[in-house]
Amino acid sequence: MCGIVGYLGSRQAAPILLDGLSKLEYRGYDSAGVCVMSGGILRVAKAKGRLAVLNGLIDGGKAIEGTFGIGHTRWATHGAPSDVNSHPHMADAGKIAVVHNGIIENYMRLKQQLLKKGKHFQSETDTEVVANLIEYYYDKLKDFPRAVRRAVGQLEGSFALGILCQDLPGTMIAVKKESPLIFGYGDGENFIASDVPALLKHTRKIVHLLDGDIAIITKDSVQFYDAFFDRVERKIEYVDWDISAAEKCGFDHFMLKEIHEQPTAVKGTISPRIRDGRVVLDDIKISRDYLAGLKKIYIVACGSSYYVGCLGKYLLEKTCRIPVEPVLASEFRYSAPVMGEDTLVLVISQSGETADTKAAMMEAKRHHARTLAIVNVVGSAIALEADDVIYTWAGPEIAVATTKAFSTQLSVIYLITLYFAELLGTIEPAEYQSIVSEMTKLDQKISLCLTRENVAKIRYYAEQYFTARDAFFIGRNLDCGVCREGSLKLKEIAYIHSEAYAAGELKHGPISLIEDGTLVVAVCTVDALFDKAMSNLVEVQSRGAEVLGITTENREAEFKVKVPSVITVPETHPMLQPSLTIIPLQLFSYYVALLRNCDIDMPRNLAKSVTVE
Ligand code: M6R
Q1: For the whole model, what pTM was predicted?
Q2: What are the residue ranges in the chain where pLDDT is below 70?
Q3: Does 480 qualify as catalytic in the annotation?
Q4: Count of C-beta atoms within a 10 Å radius of residue 322
């Protein structure tokens, strides 16, 4: 969601802020702004729209001189996207400037109180309340850090803040509660940012601020304080990403680059965890006795991560014989789930910052359920709070539409399934060996899905169908889980109304929507259900649907008898097939979106990590 960048040093701040914000564009935003201390006053420039608008407004930063400042990309929550609602926000008397990521839940109450005290407001945002509250205490205490501390003590909700005070040039205060914030050490200069890509050009020496932290920063120093305002040390981390991880490297879009990175990402996730033909999960401390006493596994996540959970249900239940229920994280807390010490809550999140998922996890902890998180971002909130963590080594994922994170999450589900099944003795050794052996080849088989020839074929079908108004994705069993993800991809990046259904469910209602020319993407790879899935497909075809089939290479001839438009993927062990089937669906959505001139990496209204509930 919103992106924050802050800079203090000797270089011109505005161009650095603009560049840092451009590296956070992937988070999703609708307006942008900067505030720079210039000639003794805090000068703000902000505008609705893409960064290019702001860039034009201040001539790439040249129009505001000054060597420290804060910048922001806003994803609207309180108040529509507009110039005035954009950040940074200035307090009434112009002494305090604030950028904010998160939501202040009690802002209306605070606003009423501040209005009574004579403060005026320009915007509809909760952030302007923060600026005015700090200024109110600053006027009373004449001490910037203490004023921030007093104000923060009154805020309810989630917030990462970057704050400047006109009377204290050269000092910035950063505050973190629930929304992510990083401090970056430079040489005679320092930085803050919402995420690593904004800092990569300048430093790799960072600190992840913890909840409750307040950092007082100058160009040469930083002091960290905890929620009690006690001085604390924070762990310095070194980012070892290759800078290319945050660049497009010749691809037209991050999404396409990340699709092509999947063989490497999957291999990087699986291979360190397979040793001598066995799955070894050093990452977690789960014993056979604990598993044997488990009554239930909940899988809690949002969006694509939830769809990984839906696939996980089939795999874990079938292989480990433990009841598994995937639940949308936003619903979990409010559905009174039955859980306790004999419940494992598997939490899946690429960002590790998704507010709904984190809240669901905390609810599980309150009920003494054990939490095991599958997370991509090291040091993220969910990773820090979970009892156990397994990282997906996908590397940074920039495109809003997830691809490689999805694939690596799925890989971790396979690893967990085999690991649990072996501990519980619910899998035959030969079957175990055959799955492990296929897992070690998964990256090569994903590469086969990405050959030039296969990509060209998918592009051809995208050209046939890109004008579709509606689409259905149908499949059975694991294919149904893949359909959910394929359908979400088409919705989010190509803006085509699309629904995923279990193929057998269609005739119970939704088939009434099928008419001449409706696009139906049918995934048929599950051997045991192939004939039934084909019958469902013929049912829609005979009602006028245009069917695009996805099946395995060995089924191509049989498939083509009924459906001429077909894309094939290599065969693997049936349990692992979703890792291959999803690839053409990702590419199909990508090329459909491209042909529809959509903003592929930053689809409208979407944010990469959703840090509000
Ligand atoms: O970071 P998370 O995995 O927790 O994010 C969950 C969803 O917001 C995310 O998967 C979303 O659905 C993606 N945009 C899908 O491409």
Answers
A1: 0.85
A2: 243
A3: no
A4: 18
